[in-house]
Amino acid sequence: MFEVAVIEDAAAAEASLDPMRAGLLAALAAGPASASMLAARVGLARQKVNYHLKALERHGLIELVEERRKGNVTERVMRATAESFVISPVVAEGVRPDPARFTDQLSARWLLAVAAQLVGDVGALITGATKARKRLATFAMDGRVRFASAADRAAFAEELAGAVTALVAKYHTESAEAGRDHRVVVALHPSVAPPADGTSAEDS
Predict the structure, then answer these.
(1) DSSP E strands: which ranges in 61-111?
(2) CA-to-CA distance for 139 and 59, rounded, in angstroms?
């Protein structure tokens, strides 16, 4: 089982978003179970649960762990193929945002477009690396900083941009024929805390 899997097929995405199938997928991400075991949990007939499980299996979201013989019935124990799933923007190919259309470092919508491309790119890389049975070399940082003022935030962003630009200039070798291009994404946005009362978090 993978920690995270990327859904790149529209039909698979649709199956994962169906409320009942999403619940079954979450249950199987927590641990293997059979249709009869899941039926008792969700309050549906085993045949109905089996129907949903077959759809999830057809799209590669769950897989067979073992088969158990109980009298004249063979019970199939299933599990999710990953602990969690991310739907790639390529699923909505015709409407996914293109960060190349405009570049505004202060635009939250441009940041969203960059993030969407990041998810799509890394998803494609993971898919390719998995098929090739190779390890994918990536690096990421995720941190938190509290600014005393908007001026401090602006100064931080300017200094960060300068440092990253200097690093790129230092290590980028355009003439390296055997080299491989890498994409560098640096983002800064207000932290979002999960609302305790179910209401939307306010912008910082």
Answers:
(1) 62-70, 73-80, 82-87
(2) 30
CA dist 147 → 41, 92, 135, 157 (Å): 47, 37, 37, 11
DSSP 83: E
pLDDT in tens, 189-202: 999 887 776 554 44
In this structure, the number of other CB atoms found within 10 A of the CB of residue 25 comes to 23
Query: Can you say how many angstroms the Cα of residue 151 is from the centroid of all Cα atoms in its chain?
Result: 34
Q: How far, in Å, CA of 133 to CA of 123, rounded?
A: 15
pTM of the predicted model as reported, rounded to 2 decimal places: 0.74
DSSP-assigned letter for residue 95: T
Is the confidence at residue 204, as pLDDT, over 80?
Answer: no
Q: What does residue 110 show for φ and ψ, rounded to 5 degrees? A: -70, -40
Cα–Cα distance between 9 and 165 in angstroms, integer?
36
